[in-house]
Structures are given as C-alpha cells and as structure tokens.
Specification:
By secondary structure, this protein is an alpha+beta fold. The chain has two domains: 159 residues, 3-Layer(aba) Sandwich (Aminopeptidase); 85 residues, 3-Layer(aba) Sandwich (Glutaredoxin). Helices cover 26% and strands 27% of the residues. Strand 2 and strand 3 form a beta hairpin. It is globular, with a radius of gyration of 18 Å. 42% of the residues are buried. The mean pLDDT is 95.
Length: 248
C-alpha cells in the first residue's frame, strides 16, 4: 500500500477518507476547514492513496481537542481502516508510521481513546492490546485513555477532572460536538429538525476551540450525547436512530 500525507498545500485536491465526496459536500467542507486550522498545531493526516477509509490522524497531545493531560505525548485522533482495506496490515503500517514520526519528534509516547469493549468511532481495544498499549485512565462512562510509552519512566497521561465523571446539569437532550468528524455537519442539523418536529428539548453545543474542548464534561468531544444530565453515547445518530431513542 502507498500512503500520502495530507497537508495544507494538497488538502483541496485530496480525499479525506471518512468523507470522500467532492469539496462542495458540507461534510467534506467542514472537515477540511477543521484540518486546515489544525496543521499549525502539528496535526498529521496520513492516508492511503486509494479512495476509502484507510488513514491515521494525530497531533501533539497538548493541542488535542480532548480533556486530557498528556504533555510530551502524541495523541491519535483517529485510526480508521475499514471495508476492503481490512485484514492487510494497513492499520499496523499507519500506526508504525505514527510511532516513527513521534519518536523522531522526541515524544514520550502515544495515547488514544478506547474502551474495554469496542465502541463505534473509537479505537479497537483488541488491536491496542496487540500493539502493547495499556489503559492509563478511565472515566465513569467507560471511556478509557490508553497509552504506549516510549520510555519506562514516562508519566502516564490522564483525564482532566472535568471529564472524569461525565455529567451535566442541563435537562433534556444536550449534544456536544466538533467538526473533527465530518458526519456532524450533516447529522446534527437532522437531529435538531427531528427534535423540533417531536417537540423534544434538544440543544447542540458546537465546540469550536481547543480551550473549550479541553474543558468539556466528556472525554469524547467529537460527539457526546447527554439526556437529563446523563451521558448516553458517542455514536453519531441519523433521524431513524434518534427517533428510536426518543421512543424509549
């Protein structure tokens, strides 16, 4: 497999894997705008030259849009290999490139979000265990912070206090989200429309800065849905899935 790094210079001409429509698609536009603003923070987006979901996205943990304390580490936003790309060792290729790059940049190690059992849009814990990652912290909702230190004495990354016990005081459905995930540009407005039609209390909080993301009441900031203060899920919902949730 041949890989290419997406940069500010070639961003407009490259597909971004998780959303591979043209640049006029709202999902692609929102994701590319988010990426463009992150390159200055040290973000790396490495992907297959083939069109499809086969990529890794990472950046220095100090600049991660998550409430973690992991100074000196590299944080993996997303490692996604799916469809016909699975089963060929491409996940290992991409992770190895991230490790090599991170070591060359003098990082202490890598960290990434996962869970005891596989959750949608989070790294697979079985893969992480196979690659010698271990859990270094866990929030009350089961979201875990995993790490791969390059040094035996490296301090463990941890969640900030604001995210350790995910809970909010607001009633109704409250969704925290960022433009890191392109699907939000399409599906968040759909949920808002459904909530209006069903006369359901719903509030979408768009996280638009690193500072707000690092102080969010949830370890996962790309998508975190609460109801009456209780954390529900990090999985993006379409109208049918949301209506099913409301029916409960």
């Amino acid at each position: 497999m041949e890989y290419i790094q997406v940069t500010e210079e070639n961003l407009e001409n490259e597909h971004i894997c998780c959303a591979i429509s043209n640049n006029n698609d709202v999902q692609v536009a929102s994701k590319k705008a988010w990426l463009k603003d992150r390159f200055a923070d040290g973000l790396v987006f490495l992907k297959s030259v083939e069109r499809g979901k086969c990529f890794i996205e990472y950046l220095p943990a100090e600049n991660a849009w998550n409430p973690i304390i992991a100074d000196g580490y590299m944080y993996i936003d997303c490692l996604w290999v799916s469809g016909s790309f699975k089963g060929h060792g491409y996940s290992t290729d991409l992770l190895n490139e991230c490790i090599l790059d991170s070591k060359q940049k003098g990082k202490k190690g890598l960290c990434v979000l996962s869970s005891a059992k596989k959750k949608p849009f989070l790294s697979d814990p079985k893969f992480l265990l196979h690659k010698e990652f271990t859990v270094c912290d866990e929030a009350d909702n089961g979201i875990q912070l995993w790490y791969l230190p390059f040094q035996n004495d490296a301090e463990k990354p941890r969640f900030r206090d604001c995210a350790r016990h995910p809970h909010i005081d607001e009633k109704g459905y409250v969704l925290y989200y960022t433009n890191q995930c392109p699907f939000n540009a399409k599906y968040v407005p759909i949920l808002e429309k459904v909530a209006r039609e069903e006369n359901v209390c719903f509030k979408a909080i768009h996280i638009t800065s690193k500072e707000n993301a690092q102080n969010a009441p949830t370890p996962v900031t790309t998508y975190a849905l609460f109801n009456d203060g209780v954390y529900l899920t990090n999985e993006q919902m379409n109208d049918k899935r949301f209506l099913k949730l409301l029916a409960k």
